[in-house]
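ENTRY TYPE: protein
CONTENTS: sequence, structure tokens:
***
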Amino acid sequence: MLFDLLEPLVAINARAGRRQLVWLQGEADWARTQAADWLRDAVIEQPLWVGAAAPDGIEALAAPEVQRRLGSECGALVFDAFSGFNPNAFGQAVGTLRGGALALLLTPPADSWRDFDDPEHAAIAVYPYSADDVGRRFLAHLVTTLEADSRVIAVAQGQVASPLPLPDSPVPAAAAKPPYRTADQRHAVDAVLAALEVSVPLVLTADRGRGKSASLGLAAARWLLRNEGTVLVTAPTRAAAAELFARLHDGQPGEHRGDPFDHPRVRYFSPERLLHGEGEGELLLVDEAAAIPAPVLSGLLARFPRIVFATTVHGYEGTGRGFAVRFRRELQRRAPNWREVRMQQPVRWCQGDPLEELSFRMLMLDAEAAPARAFEGFAPGDLSLCRLDRDRLLTDAPLLSELFGLLVLAHYRTTPGDLRILLDSPNLAVWTASCNGHLAAAMLVVEEGDLPADLVEGIYQGRRRPPGHLIPQALIGQEGLCQAGDLRALRIMRIATHPMLERRGIASRLLGALADWARPRHIDYLGTCFGATEDLLSFWTGNDYLPVRLGAGRDPVGGTFAVILLAPLGAAARELLDEARERLRLRLLHQLPAQLADLDARLVASLLPSTEPIRLSQGERMEIEVFAHHNRAFESCEPALWKLCSAGPESWIRAGLDQTQQQLLIRVVLQRHSWERLAAVSAGGRRAQVRALRAIMARLLESRGEGHET
């Protein structure tokens, strides 16, 4: 019986706060029965079953529901891989398991699990592929990782289980005085308060389960006891700040009941709202900072001199390592005296917990990009570019670690689920640039388009929304460009360069290699989609990718609009590009005074397509001339000025307008900002702005050969 086998281990692990994984291998009915019997006989409190066929009376969750259990604890975990192995759900579920408890993983026998038709495969397959086409590399990676760990308790159907070797019981860490759970947590709170006292930014990092969010709440509580004023809190989502608010009340006298977010002196705001000037407070606490784009963090840093950034380094909702590498540069530039504290001691399980270390390896949470020293003396001629055979990733562990680690560094929302997509997605290809045996850059490319007519019609009518095919679906469903469904495309899903080698042209070389590969294979266009920033647009347009669509709303975390760009490779795609860009031009001109009135003028200049010189009537030309060279009021000739400016950035550049002049033109004429609003962001009052605008219009007229006539 499983109970008899595990009972001695349960007692020792409970005393030590150690968690371990029990791997039940066999038929589904056998594995589920074994797990159910053990839960019954062991009288486990608050067990959690992830997957199907849970026994009566046991809390059961499907994989997508596990996230709602974050922040709570379970006394045992059963993860039923017969229902599908969802990497994100596994990481989240493991994070809820209390110290000293066991996790049971139910799978087919190891040899057959590698080729198992995992129900999760259906979520990875996109047209024209089916679940049968999805790779099995991820499952093979799991089997290899589990078999290599001597602390995994493997129990196979039909085999006699020998008594388990029992580990020594380590001496538990000394308990900290409440409200602190560990000495490490007390030290972190003291460090936060010390940094706030002298208005120095502080970065608090920790792996999952170290009490990082709780430490922020306890620090806020102590600060409020000593100081007047308001504490502001932000995080990627309101739910991500729940633990901070819950612990906030632990550090203050008196009993609190009700909504923990209901605090008179601590207020939550989304990052976007804070960037737009909302919220007044003496300090800002940023939780899960790694899940917030770096430009947003920079804006928060500029606004709040007293600020604490807390983030998870190895986590299942995203990673803090890109934050750790990239945002440090910004901190060093803006606040060179910034401080950092790393929390090491787990709160809910023991140091060196076997299950934590195993889950890190299973989900590649510990993957690292190549060390910086690998690229010392780099020369462009040392680069080797290739379209990678993904089977190599199973036999070359350092390559897999460097690849996933590099992708993690480059994108703040990389999750364990992305590892499975990387290994198994049938429509994905991996391109790499290597140097000295290490990965310098990588690019993930997915197939899109070539859709059947009935599917295109369904997308156009809003009845169908198949997985994948992001660019064709947007162009068909939102822009009415049904011809996009016929074309074959490759979308660059991710592109990442090692931080040591950025701005060396490596990413551009990968894009060039992809175009060279695609042309003889009759690919019609290359495309990409990302949150629009000035730097990213500059990179992509510099590689001849042009904007064709701007999303309808801002990302709630990053505050950016999604933008789609295309690089046509054939005549049909060039026709699509021209039509899409004209639609984008008209849409932008229509929306700039309204829903896009807050869009950065520099982005507008990068996004707005140009058109042929606008034909002005004689009356319109005379209106513009009298404004430019005399004293006609702006409001009396605004339509003519708008028409002249609507030709787009190419006409502005021909006229020799610098960036400051272009931005004034955009804000006044295209976005119709009030003079009062302009005065808040520009030097000089209305008179100076009008004078500058007259000079701009004079130059635009002159560049058309329509200068001042006396």
User: Anything to note?
Assistant: The first strand starts at residue 20 and ends at 25.
